[in-house]
Design brief:
The protein has 3 domains: 2-17 and 151-221, no CATH class; 18-127, no CATH class; 228-508, no CATH class. The chain has 509 residues and is of the alpha+beta class. β4 (169-172) and β5 (176-179) form a beta hairpin. Helices cover 37% and strands 17% of the residues.
């Protein structure tokens, strides 16, 4: 089925030294425009706050004062009009906030104004409880060295200024052609056949590399059902972890792009951050000994950023290999709904109630984030929709690691230190992660809603939690903590909590 989707093609740039300096100037102008728009919004917000305080001081209730006070927050059209009046012009020797604006593509400023509007909207919706996910803080100004160097350009699709001049050269409007490290042959041919239309390009810097992410509207042949090969292999349960990146209920080929062990059931975890810790520690020691503001410190700071960027690139490469292999080889990919923020919460505590084993918990948090389970699920969400498969997400509270995959007996006394599951009911003994993967596969129903296609479970985004085995009341931070009010009987089955026939617990993405 032919479907239009937005797809980004990311290329590594190889700019000349002069072009790199120009890219840095354009990134600086994007920061300037964002800060200009944000300053206008903060000024209006402070005026509103001052008027509300005046009314409250006069005896009016704060809720009523908030409703009476109306101070419009300037959006992109208003901000751009004020910016045009104050920017100045070096050609006419007129001073202003940005007199060199004519040397930069106008979309650098316009996209920054749009980004400021989005940042302000995200904060308001998060403050009002209308935005899902983590709380979004009050927008901050972008500072050189702290904010990511990037800018975004748009163009007229009828007169494209952003295009691949050749397979190895990308033309950016008002900037010129930049050589690519890799080949753009695939996108070049899609544009030539009329299958892709370039919408915008985002140029950013990561470490010592420059990247161009070309956003295109692509006409893709997205299958509406799994292929025969996917249907034959059926559903696979994926248990994400730290010791191994993922444990699978069905094996992957050992000669494929993904490094596996245990008969193809265990995906090896490369742990890129741990592999680079020695070099990072040395580079950060060198950085700490440099004088602030010196050239040597800037060079050492760039070295640290380069190492961190290499870690991120290696991690992302492994995740892309794993997610594409799972999405193309199975009809249904079942994963757990992990609460990563809760799992990696600090154990430091407070001054009144300090935490215990803080350093051990910090090391565990670092290892969990190094495996990036949230990013793996995000990639599975859109790749399953591209390749005809489906993504099913098991309920967060289902005790997959504490339940026997053969008979359903629960071991409520199991801890994270127990790496082998022993069932005293049927005698099953197997790896803890493999047992969890089998449970994830068997207790996940076939999705009836396609993942990542604009459809949701219900209007309120409520999770479906059908009756199933539970290991007592469990906390959010530790999803497999039994948390029983009294001492739990050691390794005994609890028949009333076994899953009734025909009832399985699932939450779709």
């Amino acid at each position: 089925m032919k479907t239009e989707v937005l797809r980004a093609y990311r290329f590594t740039l190889a700019p000349s030294p002069a072009q790199e300096q120009k890219l840095l100037r354009w990134c600086g102008n994007a920061r300037l425009a964002f800060n200009y728009a944000l300053a206008a919004k903060k000024t209006a917000h402070e005026q509103w706050r001052a008027q509300v305080d005046t009314l409250v001081a006069g005896g009016i209730p704060e809720a009523q004062a908030r409703k009476q006070t109306k101070v419009p927050i300037p959006s992109k059209p208003t901000v751009q009009k004020a910016f045009n009046a104050e920017r100045g012009d070096t050609r006419a020797e007129v001073e202003g906030v940005c007199p060199w604006w004519h040397e930069v593509n106008t979309y650098v400023f316009q996209s920054a104004f749009i980004d400021a509007d989005r940042a302000w909207k995200n904060w308001l919706e998060s403050f009002a409880g209308k935005r899902a996910g983590r709380r979004v803080g009050y927008p901050r100004f972008k500072k050189r060295g702290r904010a990511r160097d990037s800018f975004r350009l748009h163009h007229d699709v009828k007169k494209p200024g952003i295009r691949l001049a050749t397979h190895r050269r990308l033309r950016i409007g008002s900037f010129g052609e930049v050589r690519l490290h890799d080949s753009g042959k695939r996108l070049f041919r899609q544009v030539a056949r009329g299958e892709a239309v370039v919408q915008s390009v985002t140029v950013s810097r990561g470490g010592h590399r420059w990247y161009a992410s070309v956003l295109c509207k692509v006409t893709m042949d997205i299958p509406d059902r799994p292929t025969r090969r996917q249907t034959e292999r059926g559903k696979v349960g994926v248990d994400l972890g730290v010791k191994v990146l993922a444990a699978l209920s069905k094996p992957l080929p050992t000669d494929g792009p993904v490094k596996v062990s245990g008969g193809g059931l265990l995906v090896d975890n490369p742990r890129p951050l741990r592999a680079a810790m020695q070099g990072l520690a040395k580079a950060q020691r060198v950085l700490s000994r440099k004088q602030k503001g010196s050239k040597a410190r800037e060079k050492a700071w760039q070295r640290v950023g380069q190492l961190h960027h290499q870690v991120a690139v290696r991690r992302n490469a492994v995740l892309h290999q794993v997610t594409k292999t799972l999405a193309t080889r199975f009809s249904i990919v079942a994963v757990e709904n992990l609460h990563v923020a809760g799992m990696t919460r600090s154990a430091r505590g407070t001054a009144e109630a300090p935490g215990r084993r803080v350093r051990q918990k910090a090391g565990l948090n670092r290892a969990i984030l190094d495996s990036a389970p949230g990013e793996l699920r995000r990639q599975l969400a859109y790749k399953t929709s591209w390749y005809g498969s489906q993504l099913a997400v098991l309920d967060r509270w289902w005790p997959s690691s504490k339940t026997c995959s053969d008979c359903g007996w629960q071991d409520t006394s199991q801890t994270l230190a127990d790496r082998t599951f022993h069932c005293t009911n049927c005698g099953l003994t197997m790896d803890r992660d493999l047992n969890a993967a089998l449970n994830i596969e068997r207790h996940t129903e076939t999705p009836n809603v396609a993942s990542d296609r604009g459809e949701t479970q219900n209007a309120c985004r409520a999770s479906v939690r059908l009756p199933g085995p539970r290991a007592g009341e469990q906390g959010a931070a530790k999803r497999e903590d039994a948390g029983l009010s009294g001492p739990a009987p050691p390794r005994r089955s609890n028949p009333p909590t076994l899953p009734p026939q025909g009832h399985k617990q699932v939450k779709l993405f």
